[in-house]
Amino acid sequence: MSNCAIVGINWGDEGKGRMVDLLTEKYDVVVRFQGGGNAGHTVVNEKGKFMLHLLPSGIFRKGVINILGNGVALDPENLWLEMQEVVKQGVSLTPENLKISDRASILLPWHRDLDALEEQRLQDKKYGSTKQGIAPFYSDKFQKKTILAGELFYPEELKAHLADLLEWKNLTLTKVYGTEPYTMEMLEQWMEAYCEKIKPYICDTTVVLEEAQKEGKGILFEAQLGSLRDLDYGIYPYTTSSNTTAGYIPIGSGLPSARVSDIVGVVKAYSTCVGEGPFVCERFGEEAEKLRKAGFEYGAKTGRPRRVGPMDIVATKYGVRVQDATEIALTKLDVLSYMDKIPVCTHYLLHGKQTDAFPFPVALKEAKPVIEYFDGWNCDISKARTWEDLPKQAQDYVTFIEKAIGCPITYVSVGPERDSIIRRSKENFHEE
Ligand code: GDP
Hints:
The chain is of the alpha/beta class. It has 11 helices and 20 strands. The protein has helices spanning 16-23, 76-88, 109-122, 134-142, 155-176, 184-198, 205-214, 249-252, 285-295, 313-323, 392-405, and strands at residues 4-8, 29-32, 41-45, 48-52, 65-68, 73-74, 98-101, 105-106, 202-203, 219-226, 262-268, 271-273, 307-309, 311-312, 327-331, 341-350, 353-355, 368-375, 409-413, 421-423. A 10-stranded mixed β-sheet has the order 9-7-5-2-10-1-11-15-19-20, with helices on both faces. Strands 14, 16, 17 and 18 form a 4-stranded mixed β-sheet that branches. A two-stranded antiparallel sheet has the order 3-4. It is globular. Bound molecules: guanosine-5'-diphosphate. Guanosine-5'-diphosphate binds at residues 8, 12-18, 39-42, 44, 300, 331-332, 334-335, 413-416, 420.
């Protein structure tokens, strides 16, 4: 069976979680391959409403194996708290349906501290971090200054390794930021409280994935955030600290031979952005507030109001390209139903020239949006389940976007619930 990736095309929060929850009906294994507990995937299904941060969104389906790959920032504290929350809501989590890679690096308690301390030091130049420790964690991973989940099975070696890391990290904490040092007792208590709890779920997940592949099982790869937050292709330095693009799958999933034929890029029918950084199509004032309210655009992890704007064709086209997306799921179309005229940012104006090429990150702050208006449909479309159920104006909006970004829209989502979806065949797409 062919494999599939669900990735974000824009700044994140596109609705990847709801798409993974929907599409897992066809897959046997779901793998998170990057990022950490700073994700906020909201899933609404027959079991209730869930906010997932680190757990893969396939945990609601019976028989699906969910894997946290080696590319994730494994935060045992947040993971354990999230697991308990989800179990309380009636979802079963066992070492059979949840597996953690023994090669995943562990996010240690000081990573969260350092994240907050650095944002505080930066003051008005801050990155807008969710303060979950992600940037300090990935820096340490690449410096080889953290521990692998599998080390929990080697307590003697682990203790010596932690002692070395402690000595090193305390230098930064006390001498750079002037805070209290960590002690070995503090670390050991933390390991006992969280790492020991997730230990039964840790195993060699590469073996599990290779076995699944050999048996012809379908694997779905779930990303966090979106193209524009990718460390290498995104709006650096306002990116996250990992690769959010599908190209990272063979590394971060722990399946080196991963072949992904279907890359579903998730795009919101308008734009939102959490945190700092250039956001060319941003709208302000009453217009922005109306859209924010209509789409309930407040960060899942932080509660922060999201910055909002119209669909940005320039950024979306770029996002499609760097993900190498083969099809698009357009979400939250229903949110635009209140608009008489729907703005779309079709181009940027940069140094007096109109362009549809996404600029180098530093140049983004000079770019101005070029806006075109489309007719709204002014009616409730949340009950639409087929393409024909959509009013002509909504169909026109969708087909304009797919032509402009050069990728077929095969799913149109009109509500947060699992079945609030319209499926379209790729045949409908004719590139200009
Ligand atoms: P993710 O991080 O990409 O999974 O996205 P989030 O979960 O942060 O944000 C998407 C939000 O939109 C969630 O609250 C979803 O329940 C909600 N949502 C997803 N699709 C739709 C849709 O088609 N219509 C509406 N109204 N809400 C949606």
